[in-house]
Amino acid sequence: MRFLKYVIGMAMALLIGSVAPAQAADTIVTFTITGGALTISAPASINLGNTTAGATLQGTIGPVTVTDLRGTLLGTWTASVSSTNFVTGGGTPNETVPKASVSYASGPATSSSGIGVFVPGQLTVLLAQPLAASITAFSATALVGNNTVTWNPTLQVNVPAAAVAGVYTGTVTHSVA
Q1: H-assigned helices in 18-96
Q2: What does the pLDDT look like over 85-137, one tens digit per residue?
């Protein structure tokens, strides 16, 4: 009996020792996160109201929003603003409010999302800058992933004393890069 137990034990040891080891199979998995666009939006049109020659007119444009879906790591962008002259009638000197007579103040961000440092170009109306040339409206640095920022800029128009009555039209353009 002892011999039989010995033989059975040895047979079991041989069987256990001869079982093939477990196998493994690795699968390398990849995926891509695609970057989107960097865009800016602003109201299509606004009416600042009425004023008289020689007066100053002030009003807000409405929300301007930069949406950055590029998914950057330590990215940046700068939003700029420029203007045309404002004209009525035939655009003679007395029918023109030069863009240099129009000042812009971005004001603070009214909302933002994502990770980054968002910096207004002109925090208050007291810091408004003339639109004689393109100026910085807002900027962002240290961006991580996607982000958005919105502001409500103020325009200040110094109407020349020699300006004639009429509806003056100009274009304020926001861009981002």
Answers
A1: none
A2: 999 999 999 999 999 999 999 999 999 999 999 999 999 999 999 999 999 99
Q: Which amino acid is at 98?
A: P
Residue owning tokens 């002259």: 85
> Residue 78, Cβ neighbours under 10 Å: how many?
16
CATH number at 32-176: 2.60.40
CA-CA distance, 75 to 46, in Å (whole number)?
32
Q: What is the dihedral of CA 14, 19, 20, 21, to 10 degrees?
A: -100
Per DSSP, the three-state class of 7 is helix
Angstrom distance (rounded) from CA 58 to CA 101:
12
CA–CA separation, 168 vs 159, rounded Å?
11
The pTM of this model reads 0.84
